[in-house]
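As promised in the previous annual report, we have extended the structural survey to additional targets. Below is the entry for Hydrogenase expression/formation protein HypE.
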Amino acid sequence: MRDDAPDFSGWTCPAPLRDHPRIVMGHGGGGALSAELVRHVFAPAFGGPVLAALADSATVTLGGARLAFSTDSYVVRPLFFPGGSIGDLAVNGTVNDLAMSGARAAYLSCGFILEEGVETSVVARVAEALGAAARAAGVEVATGDTKVVEAGHGDGIYLNTAGIGLVPAGVDIRPQRAVPGDVVIVSGPIGLHGVAVLSVREGLEFGVAVESDCAALGGLVEAMLAVTPELHVLRDPTRGGLAAAVGEIAAAAGVGVVLQERSVPVPPEVANACAILGLDPMYVANEGKLVAFVPRAEADAVLAAMRAHPLGAGAAVIGECVDAHPGMVVARTGLGGTRVVDLPLGEQLPRIC
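The corresponding structure token record, generated without further manual editing, is:
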């Protein structure tokens, strides 16, 4: 080997190798790297059948009651963006994780990690936004914690929230319940949150204002459950977008999924932004949408109930579960071809939640 040959051992790239010996941004992106970290590091360390389900929230029985329990952390940059803030995200994200088990959120905890030097007025704005979002979602912030780290060791404000809620009797919603024949429904246009955050962060303009879809989905889920308790799977397609959410469900249930690409609702502003930036809208994060796997016999009634709710007005059937290619998601393109929709390695847009 020549003495001046480059040393590749310290090199990284936008799609790091999966055997990378150090944590990279992709490990927090909700894709394949995140899954490997959970599967090979956290799950073996923690163990237990409840964690093994790896759903948006855990369903546990305590004192005869079925509870959904979830926690999440928020490191979005910037703290404020069109359509929301880190405070809104912290409430709505946790409420939505509970709703994906069919539960109505009741109580939240909230932890503030503050960087030395951040303006108190900014902390107050975030706290006010968080409180307003909690009241709008009908949930109480019941406990919390505050820590401060030295200047240069944070990014202004990080938040952590945990939530609990009651799961109604007869409701069993989890990724493993998807079966061939299920209809796949998305509650509305995708990609708005990721593009909204990116536009502010990078100072980009796409000819029209793009606002985050950040919203609490508990009421929409209640409207769906009022039609039938037999919703098989619900998932909010946040990090990794629609592609990651559907891919995780297919893998957990061992079913194939066929999506109709033209049926996936992509707003023109999102399509244009993604075309300019070389992104795929199906991998862009959402914060106020859900994807549902519903028995075919119930699909029309569930779709009608979703469209009658303000947060489901743009709901659309986008695909179905099949026996073929178990664990794999494919999309039928507008040209009549078929492409594989892989689980993303990391995340196209980091730090969006």
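The domain at 58-166 is CATH 3.30.1330.10 (60s Ribosomal Protein L30; Chain: A;). The two ends are 45 Å apart (CA to CA). These points will be discussed at the next consortium meeting with the crystallography subgroup.
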